[in-house]
Amino acid sequence: MPASIVGSRLSGLRFSDPQDDPGWSHVVVPGTSGAALAAAARPIETEITGAGRTRGLDEWVEETWTTSLLVLDRGTVVHEWYADGLGPRTRFLGASMTKSALAHLVGRAVTDGDLALDDLIRVHVPELAGTGYDGTRVVDVLTMTSGVDWAEDHRDPGSLASRLLGCFADGGDSRALLDHVGPGTVAGTRYAYCTADSQVLDWVRERATGRTFSDDLTRLWADLGCADDACVGIDGRGVALAGGALAATARDWARLAMLAVDGTTPEGRRLLAGSWADEAARPAYPFTAPGRLPSTLTTHAGFGYHWWPLDAEGHRLVADGSRGQLAAVDRRTRAVVVKTSRWPYDDPWVDRQYRDLSYLGLHALLDAVEPRDGEPHTEGEARP
Predict the structure, then answer these.
(1) Domains, in order of start, for the chain
(2) What are the residues facing 79 on neighbouring strands?
(3) Which of 318, 321, 254 shows the shortest CA–CA distance to 93?
(4) Tens of pLDDT along 75-124?
(5) Could you report the per-residue pLDDT of 148-175, keeping only the tens digit for each?
(6) Among residues 143, 141, 160, 140, which one has the least CA distance to residue 152?
(7) What phi and psi values does residue 53 have, to the nearest 5 degrees?
(8) CA–CA dist 336, 359 (Å, integer)
(9) Which of 106, 151, 210, 237 has its CA 20 to 30 Å from the CA of residue 293?
């Protein structure tokens, strides 16, 4: 969720239908013939208060450079809007929302018994012995507390973060670059946003399951009934940018968010252990609770298992990608809000204000679809 700047690779990414950008290579995650999400449009009455004043929904949509907005009430689409030239079949680059999709794949590997949180990274990926990841565990990269010497700095074209992203723009070898990540602090004692952790996490998941990121995502796509093709950016060796290059329709991003409620599909099929869904939604440490992360990221969210909890109890959480790609879910009410955006990065403080105002809007929209009087909350409901 780091800020970008003008001239960086992040600021130049194509966020709508990135598969049409000739500068990037992609693989397709095929859609299924599953049933479309139900739809029953209704007025959404809400106001968003922040940045010193109150505004209505339409003004918030425009002010935060929204490109799509989708609101679901227990699996039914009740509000759907797209910017001019975009629509239900547009694939929106999720940027770092991809990390939350990766978390689902890791959670499934843990649920299936292929992987354990205490597994050492080097056991699955011996190529990383002698690097900063030697001695770290799966849980350390999952919570971005690996302690490695890494700065998510896209201002410096020579930084490891810029060079990692460059592997996907220029056909490089992203996994060879991870060999250059050195040790920093003791694992589990400090949070630092780190896309390298996501790439290592996916490498471990791949070794444990025998499936590439795109193959595993194809399996998940089918099980969720995602209707449209998605695409994933890859480097010169065919390795996916599991930390940032999934593009999907707004409705399919919503399906990914719904799985975070309790680990089951809308039809009740369990894909993730209920305990995993609970743990993934909560801050992993006191210093990753909402309001305790570095303020340059946000004061509105914490960090769990590659998801961003919006409260200490893990009732609300969000997948967050650069330039305003957001998929929020209330696990008690099963309300979901997907907002994609394309705000500029001329000024990091402006970026911060758009993100803060977007978070406030997510809460307001989730509140707007709270159950009516007499309707129960659903978090913790027994599912098969």
Answers:
(1) 18-113+210-368 (3.40.710.10)
(2) 71
(3) 321
(4) 999 999 999 999 999 999 999 999 999 999 999 999 999 999 999 999 99
(5) 999 998 778 888 988 998 899 889 999 9
(6) 160
(7) -165, 180
(8) 13
(9) 106
